Fold each of these.
Amino acid sequence: TGAFYTSLLDRVRALPGVEAAATASGAPMGYYNNGDSLSVDGYQPPPGQPRPSSLYLIISSDYFRTLRIPLVSGRQFTLADDARAADVAIVNQTFADKYWPKQDPIGKRFRSTDLKNEWLEVVGVVQNSKAQGIFSDPEGYFYVPLAQQYKSLRALQLRTAGDPSALAPLVTREIRALDPDLPL
């Protein structure tokens, strides 16, 4: 549940050596990815080209800081981007360049049938990062806040000051303290 992950992040962030922590619906170069076809406001695919599509992640706060993905323009998600607010997204530079070339993408809209099929307003652009493979070219990617698009399947991601393997038993201990029956 959401309370489990909130507690887990609080506990893990308090561990010595943890600089930042976040959860997401997948991990960079992980085995599980979310992807969907899109409707992009004002964009018509060239004749014979498929409908727009993109990979995406549902992320908690601190995701970009944890993975050191710099914000290029706009803003990060805030606590105000919750279930009561208009749906928002942050896109990577490739996504922005593909669908809004030579335009400011902030305020532009698109929707994903996988995510409530509601319009998502772009509030930020982040630098491209390696999401699929270390040698592959960057793909269009977008991110939505967990507070607006809940998904229970999540990957815990940490930024540490030292050897991350030294933290593994401590993280396992914190997970077990919250739910001893959870398979790890």
Amino acid sequence: MGWRIVVGSDSAGYGYKEALRADLEADPRVDAVIDVGIREDEDVDYPHIGVTAGHLVASGEADRALLVCGTGIGVAMAAGTVPGIRASVAHDAYSVERLVKSNNAQVLTLGQRVIGLELARALVSDWLDHHFDETSTSAPKVAALASYQHSAGREKHDLLP
């Protein structure tokens, strides 16, 4: 079964979102692309796009999300507010690999004002090939992140094991 990918952007990332959406729709590794906006005639602030995408992934309606804004930072912060979601901006191949393999992040964010479109396309293509290994040395770290996120605001954690 192929990936179910949510795509979204604010107005600063609209051009790349449209190009990357088309690439994903044509990619045989992708079964479905869910576009949460924006449309060309819209101006929606990035928090709304990031949170909407995060909820679709957290609910299981999608496997991953690809979000674009001017820097990638805002949409990463927005998606990361959704419980269970790990999101990060990445602008190089090694960071994209580690985003998935070390952190099991479901959301990749990119900055249209930071990298060129061809690099963005290459990074998204690489991203589709990476999978998290639940038996890796990173698995306990990801579990700790999930635990902290799950209990955020409800109880005090001891920061050291």
Amino acid sequence: MQKSTITATLLLLPLLVTMLTGCGAKEPSKPPEKITNVTVARVAQKDLLVTESAVGTETALGAALDYDPTRGGGNTFYVRLPFPEQVANQLKLGQAVTLTTFAGNKSAQGRIREIRPPLNVTTQSRDVIAAVNNAGWRPEGSIRGEVNLGVRRNALIVPEQAVVLRPAGTVVYMVAGDAVTQRRVKTGVVSEGVIEIVEGVKAEETVAVDGAALLSDNAKIKVREPAP
């Protein structure tokens, strides 16, 4: 055998060993598929109370003329509540208002006494003056005023956590077995932890709730029991 042939053979040996070794090697295993733990809820259908609220304080004039930390029953307090203009336009004189103090979380029922013209161009709000007869309650600091604007009959609702904002728009994740599909929806009223779905779902369909923000279309899931 010529010297050049021996040299060439020696140079090819590492390549041949690599090829022979590779023939018996296993393909690398795929990483485990991501599974997201979620809780689920069925789309419910019920009458939904439509409420709006604003945070205000006792009127400056009332506080200046009638301030007395020891004053008792029989007095009337006036509270200024800056509601958004589109909400204020739906209110009526004499309409009931639930007033709650942040200090002590005490509540009282009042009535709308005055709806003033728009003054704040920046916030587009209107001052609504509510009057409440003192019954062991007095406004202290900030006060939350809540009004009832009506009832949505047979509204389709889901927990707020089920609704997620994605580049495609507002979506929920519909549960089918161990996977979900993304579905665009149109939302309506938000009230006490639930949100109305105006378009996109049907009653009794199942949606992902806790964990929905971590999902994508066709994601794998494991349903877990909600926290007690």
Amino acid sequence: SKYPEYSALLNEYREGILLFDLTNTKVWQKAVDDTLGLKEFYTRNQNKYMWGERINADIYHCANLSIARKVKSGVRYAVRQDKIYSTEKYNAKELKVTSGNFVKGANIYVDKVKWELGISKDIKEDNGGFTFIHIKNILEPESKSLKEVKGKVISDYQQKLDEDWIQELRLKYSFSVNKEILYSILR
């Protein structure tokens, strides 16, 4: 009673902690713990979590042009024989191979070549090294797995739980905003 501003601050702090704890229980932690609800939410909204067109490729980074030509020739021969090219005779300084699925914008080397099956026609010089790409497959757009987008799905699920909770509270409790007081605070 002696310090009303301090009392109001403590009350605001207490209510903030209560709101945080309730929101954690109803929204944040629920989205993480409710695996069935998360899977159901993902299944209903699977079209929001799609891969664009991608390629499956090997990117060969060679130390010099001579090695790049030998490796490219070896890869071309292995592809014709329907075999996998062995890079064991080269050390890590001479040759580095990056394999995987790539979307546009994810890799500068992939973005520089035309997306068609086979080995890129040119050997590109890059920072003192030489690079070429072997595109093994062009993948059509498809849904990402829940494992691949779990963080984003949890975030979206939390947002939906929050919206549902607010809607439930608005139906259960009536409220009004005194606009005169609100605008006086804003001024």
